[in-house]
């Protein structure tokens, strides 16, 4: 059994790692990681915009985004993937690569989830911070950028890492629309071997497990550190903000 | 907006003209008419829920009003203003909150220096130097690099005063600045406020510290039920309050 697994890895590690590349499109684990990273990197600013819209006093901004968030959160990701796969080419008439379809779907899906986390993070700060910033003459965006978001996002780092883990798992659904990721590579291997599905998919599961487990472990470390810092036990870093360098001395 | 209300004379820093505000059916401010002259210290007092916080928050438009006008240096704060114009006006009105509202992600000196840098475009080095001077003035120079969570309530409120002063406002508003403090820390905050008054700062203070009112206030506004029902010098107010509600209020405070 262990023997079989080692033999499979020995034979197919490159396929599992990068897919058909350079003879075909990049695939395998590399593509899984790229897809996850790209979707979280795009979903994040998108989520901030969605959160702003949800918190807006203007109905025209608030309502459509609220509907989007509720629909997205209420529908299984697989449905969204299939919709984008069949609907987007129908609507646009363009032949969209499956990678792009999956990326867009993940961005919308994770964006909707993250936006709720961000919104909660902002609301949790209470109105006093915004009041103080406005009273000093900051505009709404200035207050967000220098006062609200640095705090809200910092507090949310653990949630965002968890979302990243979830995204990695979610990329597996790209399999149904033939995104050449790790899952896709594993099933190719399985199709070639035919007799060892258990071994092949055990390798697949273990790989996902190791990646997600490491990230979860990292999340826990970060979370503990943030909790400690909030309690004022450790002196915070001089620069907590991800966005501003307001505090930098020349 | 009452366009007919003329702009105030030069020495009137703040003028409120028939200011009304309600939350739904509930009228919080029922027609406030008052002025604050340059260099004047006004203490606003009255029972809890009478509208003191609402009133003082309308002065820099942290609360909107339903009708009336509030002039600050001749400009109507509640007129339809461009965002930038309102921000500029607000930056000239210092506000100190009951709950301090320091920015917890910034050290004391950065709390003070941030807005001059980001709002006024003051060079960072200059803003930091000035911030240190202001912290020195409120007696907290040695806490410059501490974070709000590492400071006592009294220290946080003094940093908050320094933060407001950093924008060089001609007017300072205080909404119960000592109510959230342990008794032993009230004095340090009041003494900073007294020194500000002594330097000629125009101030509106909502406070129940009657010692402070007696020593520092030029005038006392007594608010009840959304109206200023008595305006008096501290002497008149404490010796001979005219309105029965003010008499009762003072009697309750003395208990
Ligand atoms: N956002 C709000 N919505 C509804 N009612 C409010 C709101 N803010 C204040 N009030 C009410 O307005 C009245 C005046 O409040 P406030 O100005 O805070 O009083 P004070 O500062 O004198 O204690 C209170 O009865 C309070 O319950
Ligand atoms: Mg109040």
UniProtKB/TrEMBL annotation, chain A:
CDD domains: TM_PBP2
Subcellular location: Cell inner membrane; Cell membrane
Domain ABC transmembrane type-1: 29-219
Keyword tags: Cell membrane, Membrane, Transmembrane, Transmembrane helix, Transport
Pfam family, one: BPD_transp_1
InterPro entries cross-referenced by the UniProt entry: AA_ABC_transptr_permease_3TM (IPR010065), ArtM/GltK/GlnP/TcyL/YhdX-like (IPR043429), MetI-like (IPR000515), MetI-like_sf (IPR035906)
Record carries keyword Nucleotidyltransferase: no
Transmembrane portions of the chain: 33-53, 65-86, 106-125, 146-168, 200-222
Membrane topology (UniProt): Multi-pass membrane protein
Family: Belongs to the binding-protein-dependent transport system permease family. HisMQ subfamily.
Name assigned to this protein: Amino acid ABC transporter permease
UniProtKB/TrEMBL annotation, chain B:
One Pfam family per UniProt: ABC_tran
Stated family: Belongs to the ABC transporter superfamily.
Lineage: Bacteria, Pseudomonadati, Pseudomonadota, Alphaproteobacteria, Hyphomicrobiales
Family matches, as PROSITE patterns: ABC_TRANSPORTER_1, ABC_TRANSPORTER_2
Record Gene3D superfamilies: P-loop containing nucleotide triphosphate hydrolases
Name of the protein: ABC transporter permease
Domain spans labelled ABC transporter: 14-250
UniProt keyword list: ATP-binding, Nucleotide-binding, Transport
């Amino acid at each position: 059994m262990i023997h079989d697994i080692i033999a499979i890895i020995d034979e197919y590690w490159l396929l599992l790692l990068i897919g058909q590349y350079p003879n075909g499109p990049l695939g395998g684990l590399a593509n899984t990681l790229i897809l996850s990273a790209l979707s979280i990197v795009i979903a994040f600013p998108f989520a901030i915009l969605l959160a702003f819209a949800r918190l807006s006093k203007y109905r025209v901004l608030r309502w459509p985004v609220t509907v989007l968030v509720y629909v997205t959160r209420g529908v299984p990701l697989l449905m969204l993937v299939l919709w984008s796969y069949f609907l987007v080419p129908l609507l646009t008439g363009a032949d969209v690569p499956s990678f792009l379809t999956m990326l867009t779907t993940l961005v919308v899906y994770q964006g909707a989830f993250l936006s709720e986390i961000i919104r909660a993070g902002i609301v949790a700060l209470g109105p006093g911070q915004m009041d103080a910033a406005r009273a000093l003459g900051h505009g709404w965006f200035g207050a967000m950028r220098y006062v609200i978001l640095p705090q809200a996002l910092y507090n949310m780092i653990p949630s965002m890492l968890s979302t990243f883990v979830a995204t990695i798992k979610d990329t597996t659904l790209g399999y149904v629309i033939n995104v050449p990721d790790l899952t896709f590579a594993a099933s190719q291997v399985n199709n070639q071997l035919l007799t060892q599905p258990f071994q092949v998919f055990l390798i697949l599961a273990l790989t996902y497990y190791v990646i997600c487990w490491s990230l979860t472990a990292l999340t826990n470390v970060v979370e503990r550190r943030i909790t400690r810092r909030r309690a004022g036990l450790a002196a915070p870093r001089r620069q907590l903000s991800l966005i501003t360098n307001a505090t930098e001395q020349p | 907006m009452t366009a007919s209300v003329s702009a105030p004379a030069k020495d009137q820093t703040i003028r409120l003209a028939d200011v009304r505000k309600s939350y739904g059916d509930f009228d919080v401010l029922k027609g406030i008419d008052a002025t604050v002259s340059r260099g004047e210290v006004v203490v606003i007092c009255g029972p809890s829920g009478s509208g003191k916080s609402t009133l003082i928050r309308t002065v820099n438009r942290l609360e909107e009003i339903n009708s009336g006008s509030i002039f600050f240096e001749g400009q109507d704060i509640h007129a339809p203003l461009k965002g930038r114009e309102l921000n500029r006006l607000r930056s000239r009105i210092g506000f100190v909150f009951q709950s301090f509202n320091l920015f917890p992600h910034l050290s004391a000196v950065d709390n003070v220096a941030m807005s001059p840098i980001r709002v006024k475009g003051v060079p960072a080095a200059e803003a930091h130097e000035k911030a240190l001077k202001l912290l020195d003035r409120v007696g907290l120079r040695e806490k410059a690099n501490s974070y709000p969570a590492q400071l006592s309530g009294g220290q946080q409120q003094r940093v908050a005063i320094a933060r407001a002063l950093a924008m060089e406002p001609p007017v300072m508003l205080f909404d119960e600045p000592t109510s959230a403090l342990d008794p032993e820390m009230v004095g340090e905050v009041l003494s900073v406020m007294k020194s500000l008054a002594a330097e000629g700062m125009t101030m509106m203070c909502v406070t129940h510290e009657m010692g402070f009112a007696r020593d520092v206030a030029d005038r006392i506004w007594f608010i009840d039920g959304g109206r200023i029902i008595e305006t008096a010098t501290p002497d008149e107010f404490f010796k001979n309050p005219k309105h029965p509600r003010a008499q009762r209020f003072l009697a309750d405070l003395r208990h």
